[in-house]
Design a protein that fits this description.
36 strands, about 500 residues, elongated, single chain, mainly beta, Pectate Lyase C-like
Length: about 500
């Protein structure tokens, strides 16, 4: 079966050059290819081609499947397009699919490309999807862009149904709901007005070799938000986003789709105004079994962010072989330069507290403005965290003031959203089962007054330290601060009883 699939893929690729030889009136399924120009598409970037593009997709699906190809050198202006099972939507090199500037073109479904309950869908090619973000934002003011409502359409992950389709909402670029065996490969998406790719409840999703190039000043324009999905692989992608680049979550409005699990992310390059990689649910649904490896995070406000605010369980995560560079950004963006940030707390006073357990970090090279930060709560401590092979250089590289950790979202009464304290190389509070092995903290020559100890632990038990090195940032200050810390004792093999 694998050979058959590979052969079919090669045959499809060999057919694509034939499209360039077709006249505009051709393309009604010859060679398994469908040309939107044959259905009346203009491709001038000014005429709305939604109906012609959709007709090409529908006819391709009716024929049992095939490839709809956007010809090179053409720009197709469009509202929502609904993808169908067994149809490949191919953006030939030099082609552009541009989002319509009219919000009403996205109110029904909320995205430029949409699929629901579909299987074997593929979006491919080296062309470009243009989100036209300037059409959905007011002009930029002296303090940056004001923030419109985030989502159009009925598939809102956070808000009540009565608040759907706000007047100033924004479309996502690709929205996949309950789909199976989907591939997104090689194309570029630029200037998304809000979340760029949002799969919900999908099983079997591969995203490979794509570039997402969003404006770093646009809020909420996440790269990829994997929501209640299973068996997902993201590889070789380049993502620049004003907000989080890669997000794993289980949003409150999609609980029927079950947990988010079985995720692999590898060989990606990420740059963000907020977090490079974020794990953060907004509902009482588990998130587990994910591996992130061989990724590079640069010029980002926070490297890896794990937040737990709504009583969920997040477990069995591995982050390995990564380089992380952080730079503080203004308070518009969550984060304070931490290479790794973990926070478990109730969203509001009295709400349930979730659990983090079985989280591993290995072989991280970090150059950051702040240190690693882990904080649970007295009632729900962090469980079984390990850090192995961590090299951390802390250097002040911006003029943005520090001396705090940014713990937003924090909606408890009177909360500022900031944990104001000296910046440690490695800070942990309320953790059970914490292992640090081959962990090294270094300070640069630029050492603000608020830089503090190399290692600071509060209310931690089962702590194991091995080959942990580092001095305080300032001469004469303590290298370590321990409050209510209990160290782990080695497990002893029970004596063997001999007869």
């Amino acid at each position: 079966m694998a050979r058959l699939a590979a052969g079919a893929a090669m045959l499809a690729c060999s057919r694509l050059p034939l499209l360039a030889q077709m006249p505009a009136e051709a393309g009604h399924g010859e060679f398994g290819l469908w040309n939107p120009m044959a259905f009346g598409a203009v491709g001038d970037g000014k005429t709305k081609d939604t109906a012609a593009l959709q007709q090409a997709i529908d006819e391709c699906a009716k024929a049992g499947g095939g490839t709809v190809v956007l010809p090179s050198g053409r720009t197709f202006l469009s509202g929502t397009l609904t993808l169908k099972s067994n149809v490949e939507f191919h953006l030939a090199g030099g082609s552009v699919l541009r989002a319509s500037p009219d919000r009403d073109d996205f109110r029904a479904l909320g995205s430029l490309l949409f699929a629901k309950d579909a299987s074997a869908v593929r979006v491919s090619g080296t062309g470009t999807i243009d989100g036209s973000f300037r059409s959905f934002f007011p002009p930029k003011g002296p303090n940056g862009y004001s923030i419109p409502q985030p989502f159009l359409g009925p598939y809102d992950p956070l808000y009540e149904k009565t608040n759907l389709n706000p007047p100033d909402g924004r479309p996502r670029m690709i929205l996949l709901v309950s789909c199976r065996n989907v591939e997104l490969e090689d194309f570029t998406i630029r200037d998304s007005p809000t979340w760029t790719i949002h799969p919900i409840g999908c099983d079997g999703l591969r995203i490979a070799g794509i570039s997402i190039l969003n404006d770093l000043e646009i809020p909420n324009c996440d790269g990829i938000d994997v929501d209640h999905c299973r068996n997902v692989r993201i590889e070789g992608c380049n993502i620049v986003a004003g907000d989080d680049c890669l997000v794993l979550k289980a949003s409150r409005n999609f609980g029927d789709y079950g947990p988010c699990e079985g995720i692999t992310i590898t060989n990606c390059t990420l740059e963000s105004s907020s977090a490079g990689i974020k794990i953060g649910n907004e509902g009482h649904y588990p998130l587990r079994s994910a591996t992130v490896s061989n990724c590079t995070i640069v010029r980002t406000n926070r490297g890896i962010s794990l937040t737990n605010r709504d009583g969920e369980t997040v477990e069995d995560l591995l982050f390995t072989d990564m380089t992380i560079e952080t730079k503080m950004r203004t308070m518009m963006w969550w984060g304070s330069g931490e290479p790794v940030f973990v926070s478990s707390a109730p969203r509001i006073t009295g709400a349930p507290v979730g659990m983090f357990r079985g989280i591993q970090f290995a072989n991280l090279a970090c150059h950051s403005e702040s240190g690693i930060y882990l904080r649970g709560t007295h009632s729900a401590p962090l469980h079984d965290f390990s850090f192995r092979g961590i090299d951390l250089l802390i250097e002040k590289t911006t003029n943005i003031p520090g001396g705090f950790y940014d713990v937003r979202p924090d909606d408890t009464p009177g909360a500022s959203g900031l944990d104001k304290r000296s910046t440690a190389g490695f800070f942990a509070a309320d953790a059970e089962g914490l292992t640090l092995s081959d962990v090294h903290v270094h300070w640069s020559d630029r050492v603000p007054a608020y830089y503090g100890a190399a290692l600071e632990l509060h209310h931690c038990s089962g702590v194991s330290l091995e080959q942990v090195t580092g001095a305080a940032a300032h001469a004469g200050a303590p290298a370590t601060i321990f409050e209510d810390v209990q160290f782990a004792s080695e497990l002893r093999r029970p004596a063997v009883r001999r007869r």
